UniProtKB/TrEMBL annotation:
<dbReference type="GO" id="GO:0003700">
    <property type="term" value="F:DNA-binding transcription factor activity"/>
</dbReference>
<keyword id="KW-0804">Transcription</keyword>
<dbReference type="InterPro" id="IPR050109">
    <property type="entry name" value="HTH-type_TetR-like_transc_reg"/>
</dbReference>
<dbReference type="Pfam" id="PF00440">
    <property type="entry name" value="TetR_N"/>
</dbReference>
<dbReference type="InterPro" id="IPR001647">
    <property type="entry name" value="HTH_TetR"/>
</dbReference>
<feature type="DNA-binding region" description="H-T-H motif">
    <location>
        <begin position="33"/>
        <end position="52"/>
    </location>
</feature>
<feature type="domain" description="HTH tetR-type">
    <location>
        <begin position="10"/>
        <end position="70"/>
    </location>
</feature>
<keyword id="KW-0238">DNA-binding</keyword>
<dbReference type="GO" id="GO:0000976">
    <property type="term" value="F:transcription cis-regulatory region binding"/>
</dbReference>
<protein>
    <submittedName>
        <fullName>TetR/AcrR family transcriptional regulator</fullName>
    </submittedName>
</protein>
<dbReference type="InterPro" id="IPR009057">
    <property type="entry name" value="Homeodomain-like_sf"/>
</dbReference>
<keyword id="KW-0805">Transcription regulation</keyword>
<dbReference type="InterPro" id="IPR036271">
    <property type="entry name" value="Tet_transcr_reg_TetR-rel_C_sf"/>
</dbReference>
């Protein structure tokens, strides 16, 4: 019986985090109190305290939850893509698709809250490392010319940050998904063998 209760508790916890993430992505989090969050999630504040000890910790945990699930989704989307050029395009397009539902308010709140911003920055570094791996693989297979993979990944990272901060949207009018497709096209064309 305790195993069943434990499984229910874990499932309920995951459902709460998913709902919490959806709320934050749609509306941001800075303006919400714990009472408002509990009401919106249809749970008690004591239930929220089982997820995290404070609103700040709750925001950080939700941010980690979002980026962990986003990374898994991106990797699932490219799992069956074998050709190196297509893998980079699929990877960056998947990142754009995952982030396309994120509100400007969430991104502004994320930028203003250092613990959540650090999670975002760490995940951007991980994504840059993944792009570097994909470029290195393409060079090894002769699909890309012998480029400095770390530089190309850093270039991609710079644009990824600008896309996620909505700077590209403000400057060009492109949404995130369109921006990531353009980045993939420019990056893969520029390093093609």
């Amino acid at each position: 019986m305790s195993t069943l209760a434990s499984q229910f508790g874990t499932r309920r916890r995951a459902e709460l985090f998913d709902t919490l993430v959806d709320l934050f992505l749609a509306e941001g989090f800075a303006h919400l109190t714990l009472d408002e969050i509990a009401a919106r999630l249809r749970c008690s504040k004591s239930t929220l305290y089982t997820l995290a000890g404070s609103k700040e910790q709750l925001v950080q945990a939700a941010t980690v939850h979002f980026f962990r699930n986003a990374a898994l989704e991106v990797e699932q989307r490219i799992a069956d893509v074998a050709e190196p050029r297509e893998r980079i395009t699929a990877y960056l397009s998947a990142v754009g698709a995952v982030l396309s539902g994120v509100s400007d308010q969430f991104m502004a709140d994320l930028d203003d809250f250092p613990p959540a911003r650090e999670v975002y920055e760490r995940n951007t570094e991980i994504a840059a490392g993944r792009v570097q791996e994909l470029i290195t693989d393409g060079v090894a297979h002769g699909v890309f010319r012998d480029v400095h993979a770390a530089f190309a990944a850093d270039l991609a990272t710079t644009m990824m940050v600008r896309i996620q901060q909505r700077a590209v949207r403000k400057r060009t009018g492109l949404d995130d998904a369109q921006s990531y497709r353009e980045l993939a096209a420019i990056l893969t064309s520029g390093i093609s063998a």
